[in-house]
Amino acid sequence: MQRSFLFRTPSTLIFLGALALFTIAVTLLSDAFGAGVISTSFVKTLGKTLCLCLIAVAMDLVWGYCGILSLGHFAFFGLGGYMIGMWLMYERTKDIVTASMAQADIPPTPQEVIDAIGTQIFGVVGSSEFPLVWAFADSLFLQLALVVLVPGVLALVFGWLAFRSRVTGVYLSILTQAMTLALALYLFQNDSGLRGNNGLSGLQNLPGAGDIPQSVMSIWFLWASALALGLGYLLAAWVVSGKLGSVIRGIRDDEARVRFLGYSVEGYKLFIFVLTAVIAGIAGALYYPQAGIVNPAEIAPIASIYLAVWVAIGGRGRLYGAVIGAGFVSLISTWFTGGQAPDLPLGFYTIKWVDWWQVVLGLSFVMVTLFAPKGIGGVFDLITGQRAPERHGADLGPDKGSLQEQEALK
Amino acid sequence: MTILKKTIVGATVASSLFGATAWAADDTIKVGVLHSLSGTMAISETTLKDTVLMLIDEQNAKGGVLGKQLEAVVVDPASDWPLFAEKARELLTVDKVDVMFGCWTSVSRKSVLPVIEELNGLLFYPVQYEGEESSKNVFYTGAAPNQQAIPATDYFLDELGVEKFALLGTDYVYPRTTNNILESYLASKGVAADDIFVNYTPFGHSDWSKIVADVVALGADGKKVGVISTINGDANIGFYKELAAAGISADDIPVVAFSVGEEELSGLDTTNLVGHLAAWNYFESADAEPNTAFVEAWKARMGEDRVTNDPMEATYIGFNMWVNAVEAAGTTDVDPVTDAMVGQKFPNLSGGTAEMLSNHHLTKPVLIGEIQDDGQFDIISQTSEVPGDAWTDFLPESAVLTSDWKGLGCGMYNTETKSCVQLGSNY
Amino acid sequence: MPPPPYLQASMIHRTFALIAALILMTVSALAQDSAIQSLLQTHRETIEQSSRKTIGPVITALATSGLPSAQTVLEKWQAKDMWQRKADGQFFYAEKIDSKTYELFDFETNSSVEKAAKSDLKQLKPNSGIRALIGTALVQFQLMDPDPVKRHDALISIERDPEPAHLEPLRAAIAGEQDAALLAKKQRLERLLTARYDAASEARVAAINSFADDLGVDARAMLNPLVQTKRRVVAGDVPADLNIARRLTPGGDDLTGDAAYAMLVDAGLAPAKIDAADIKTTLAANIVDGTVGGVPVAELDDMAGRDRAYAALVAGGLAQPTPTEAQIGAALSAHSFFDAYAEADPAVTQAAEQALRSIGTKVAVNQFLDLSLDAISLASIYFLAAIGLAITFGVMGVINMAHGEFIMMGAYTGYVVQQVIPDYTVSIIVAIPLAFAVTFAAGVAMERLVIRWLYNRPLETLLATFGISIALQQIAKNIFGTQARPLTSPGWLDGAWVLNDVVSISYIRIAIFVLALIFLAVFLFIMKRTRLGLETRAVTQNPRMAASMGINPDRVNMLTFGLGSGIAGVAGVAIGLFAKVTSELGSDYIVQSFMTVVVGGVGNIWGTLAGAAMIGFLQKGIEWMNPSNTLAAQTYMIVFIIIFIQFRPRGIIALRGRAAGD
């Protein structure tokens, strides 16, 4: 089964090969293990981009294949980051606190150690007590489990409620956006116990790994991200390849008909929604230790919309399209907004890309939606010679997708 | 796949190009500017970028530093906090800058801290902030709470006779910590907990009617009410509009703001706000000679309608102190310059002299200004210089902490256990 | 580093100025200062220091000097018009001639002294605390002043800082008062002062009773201090000479046993309890050869070990024992705890308590009313922001994520108009139709260029319009900058409609409410009474059938979309007037607007109205329950909406039948 699955989808093999080559190439060009051509900060950017590619794969699965335009997947991404961030902060602070307290005359009680950690972590936001959500922060294993469980359970509850009451289409999109906004606003509050607007910071310093330079650490994370992306891609490719994939695509194209055929549409949708939320959580847990800080601004609804933009530009309904979209758009955005892009003098006005990049991005997005619904991925169809039937003119029948005027003329 | 590969190859080439530029110019001293030029914070931070560029040009006209010209390396972290860390790393490792001027929000500073401490960089942070921090690699040229919040509260207590306080703030770390400090400070001054009303609103909040009504209702027990506002940015506009609509005069319920300066007032018609207060260490209207020259230079460069403000002054002091410290140390290396920085003195724009203390904070005079109808402030109170305190004395956990990089070599020293809690800073 | 040259220069300058001042002072002393000037000169340092804590005697000296010009001095000083000549320190009042020159006048003669450069003068800037003190001192001069404005000022000063001494002059000033409004104010103030300061208990009680159903903040501000209590503890029984509010039993509802014992400790009537921190300090002070009281230091890392070591120290007489429960109980029962009024007269406190109780209920009712007004106002803002969306999304089913940017465009149009037309009233009258026109055009353009190609692909409309939204936002930033721009309402919209001291609402909010009602009417009129409305409804229900009836669906869609966008533009002007104009103005409202439409029920304007009302009232309700955290109110409101939609997916008012569609 495994062999035939991979055989049936050669793009997966090509993708995995390319990913491996990319990772090795970056390693060989890096500061830590090779030529030193790529700076550590750029290795980090690439590592983060791989995580964004992973969540884009999840987004493609839920939107491109299942037709649910979720504007909430960055919330799951952020939650994953928060879960791992709690452990990182707790342990790092614990190391500092125990070292400092060991010098005191009287050895500290366990409670005093915890109180001191609390003061250190929350002193920044004017508090000192541990909120309940930090109950498991001292256990790496439990927090890793939470990376998967928290986004998963949130997606399960939200999805179950939403799909059960048959909220579909744009309503569902708006509802997921509302969920994201509510979560972001909640985390913005200091009372949420996750340090409000400051979020969790200093995550790049892994506890107990103070001696390892960031140049080496960045490569480790690049490898971890690449591995996660590879596995995530494989999983997604497997999900969409078999009968399960056919049902999911069926739901995207016409939910009612699939339901009439006797499939539990809600169950399938819920499965995909939860699965992608979990993937998003894992991607987040890998992303934020590289970024160094996770805070509520990361979760704001706009981030999730950008995710949809990446996938749409890359090409929906094909997994490599999502990866290309996320990698291409996020890297090029970094380049343009980073002030490195040369200004474009028009004679009467000089276009500064820092100012105008957003405009170009927004309009190019309109263009892609209107003229190239397949996105960049469509280029591969041209290469491999796959052509969509030429369908022009108005629909002849009453429904969408019916025969169109010009086809009928042929 | 081709496109993905192309991107990668392109990126590699790009990054090697960056590397090349870094090696190219060795005869200049590089100054990194880490202020957001886009996104929500661009409004405030762009001004500071322009200030640094102006100062660099002026310094170069004077012959540069150590006989070398200064070269600005401007990057845009786009109000995106993780990006601050990334850009800081880029500045330090790729562009190899000797010093950085940057950050505005506390969260951006916290994001940058681990990077500059790891790579031993040097950052000048020019904005008033909540304190509770002292990093070996950062010089804080803005006000600590005891240089803005505490004196303003004293002014309320002593000069205006305020007995009941409304602490209104935007929900983020600076108002939270400041209000926390103020609550325990007021308690130490004998103000009962019932006489302190605290409210937090989101960024950009616009619906202020209920909160203003709540504040008015505080007057019902016959005590004089005062508002201490740490409301940030745009939200102030709706707040002051509602205040004006409710007809609250500064004589009845005075409002003192810590985040409203000349720049913010330019978005408002201030006729109905005359008499409300702001506490800063600098106002454009300050009547001192260096200020006149500074304001003139700024207006000549940026246009007549541009105003100056407190963080600009902090940038100005920080920059000049750094120049003098480099001249004193004879090198731009971080450690000698850091040593030479402590004890540096430079005249404030608002009068008096700023001195860099061994806790990397400045001495600053505290100014209280009343809003005028032309959007400027009328300075009605000016103290002598107050030394900045990294760890506030009014919170029990931080009262025992002190920072002294010169004598103790530690930014977070526990005076009770007589030990250094940590050498890095808490982020 | 030596001070820069200009500082040195200024130091020299200062030295010279000092010498010059000394010479001048002797000269002016010879030239015989006027009485008022010499009085001011006596207090020169205090006046220059300008602090409320020290200025009191100076103001009293001036007010009681009996000099005819004392009133002028105080008034000019209060108005920040008093200036000091740097050269000799003499005080004058000044009038501005231009930004650099001021004309000085003598207080005594009111005649011009000289025209002086501003740099030679120092303005005295009394802070508002000092200004209030001056105002209080001026009361005696102003209360009978022929100018009603000054009489009003005097009353305001009394209102702010009432003093017992004000009572008699105020009573004397009532008789001659001609102005009805001022008379009423005087009488009210007289009652307030009587209740507080009169010597006779009966007069005070009568005055207090007259406020029994008064909603004024000043009435409560008078009553509350009267019933202020202080919690006290004494050994033995409660002293009889105190006006006791209530006795307290330790461990009862009002006073926990711990709190009571803490009071005893604070009063020095009982030994303090030893807490964990004390134990730790004591232990640390008693380390001998790595052990404390025989317990090795390494074992002190839990509380049991520490307690053991501490007990050993107590036994060895090296530490204080903590009081036992029995000792605490005995201490508590040996003392009386009570709340005592600061006011000694029981009749007064009783009357005040009663008056406050009856006011309390009335205040609660009125607060509810005020909250409801706020909620209605918020609802009308949401409704205004959402009504355009109710057309484009509700009627046409088009998700327009750029709707918020149309609101922003409207607001910026208002700003631009105000730059051209300085008169605020005229500019608003021009701005409203212009904003409609601008956003109508933008809406039509967007419908023609983008949306009509995507009618069959609603999800992609969402994304395409989002692209437009970020582009428009950035363009606005590039044109207008990220800074908030002022959009000022005309003068007649300033201020608030005040029903009483509790219930009030600003006129601008009322205007927005009226605008929302007008739009509701316009919408209903267009949809129900015009050809366009009929055609819109037809096209919405069945475009093909409508087309075969001779309606041009393209044209109808275009106009309907333009109408929805245009209304958004007008909403933008209104929202900009009461809040701020920034490029992010629209995105602040977009999610809430969609919520409003979805919660209300798509395709029905009454639904949108109901949705806005529900969200407005809900948010204010949550804010009322948790007044210290507005952010939480917004969070919980969204969570509530999400849950609400689960149970009523089609909103409050759901369309039935075929029109409901999918």
Description:
The complex is a heterotrimer of chains A (410), B (427) and C (662). In chain A, 68% of the residues lie in helices and 2% in strands. Chain A has 410 residues and is mostly helical. Chain A has one domain. A two-stranded antiparallel ribbon of chain A has the order 1-2. By secondary structure, chain B is of the alpha/beta class. Chain B folds into 2 domains: 27-143 and 288-365, Response regulator (Rossmann fold); 146-286 and 369-387, Rossmann fold. Helices cover 39% and strands 19% of the residues of chain B. Chain B has 13 helices and 19 strands. Chain B has helices spanning 2-24, 42-61, 81-93, 106-119, 149-158, 173-188, 209-217, 235-245, 262-265, 289-302, 310-329, 334-341, 396-399, and strands spanning 28-34, 69-75, 99-102, 123-125, 138-140, 164-170, 196-201, 225-230, 255-257, 277-280, 345-347, 353-355, 363-364, 367-371, 377-382, 386-387, 401-404, 410-414, 419-420. In chain B, the strands form 5 sheets. In chain B, strands 7-6-8-9-10-14-15 form a 7-stranded mixed β-sheet, with helices on both faces. In chain B, strands 2-1-3-4-5 form a 5-stranded parallel β-sheet, sandwiched between helices. A 3-stranded antiparallel β-sheet of chain B has the order 17-18-19. In chain B, 63% of the residues are buried. With 662 residues, chain C is an alpha+beta fold. Chain C has 5 domains: 1-32; 33-130, no CATH class; 143-226; 229-347, no CATH class; 363-599, no CATH class. Mean pLDDT of chain C is 85; it is low at 1-11, 23-31 and 657-662. Chains A and B meet through helix 2, helix 3, helix 4, helix 5 and strand 2 of A and helix 1, helix 3, helix 4, helix 6 and strand 19 of B.
